[in-house]
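Please, structure for the following, as tokens.
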Amino acid sequence: MEFPSAGQFCTLGALNSPDSAPRSPSTPLERGLHRCIPGTSMNLECTQTLVLDLPYDQARKRIVAALKEHGLQVAFNFDVADGILRSSGVSLPKSSVLGVGCPYQLLEALVADGCAAVFLPLHVVLSEHGPECEVRLLAPQVLRAAGLTPAVSIPAHRTLRRIREVLISIGACSTKRAYEGRPVVEIEATEESFQEEATGV
């Protein structure tokens, strides 16, 4: 008797779920995520990707130390691959999620609106990629698509900008792999969009 693999099991479960019936995006965030590539629940335009030329374990320690040195708080440091291995026995490439924020920006946003906790602290995703470490951050256009009020979006943008500056200061650089299949003009427009939104708040 053949048993489905973990991936097949999850796929079958999702297909048989009553929640799997197609539906139209209903919230501003969902519409923003579906606008560029219809039919996908998530696409690469939701994130900006940087690469640090260090092995994963070294990169993780270096990033956490650099964020703290620059006054940012790492609220949580979750080892995703280890958690999945312990709970399911499935081994994955090393990956983790850092919850990064500035205490003052977080306070400013939460005083204005409790929903700010959905976005802050910001998630910084680290992934093993051969001899390098890929770092993924929320793309600034996602905050705009979510329809956040300025009282929440401004602190979020400022925090995002600071995280990116810290990563670049320790040698992380942008990668075009996150934009495979997209025209160069579109790539440049995305980078310019980040600079405009981050410096304009």
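The CA atoms of residues 7 and 52 lie 29 Å apart. The radius of gyration is 18 Å.
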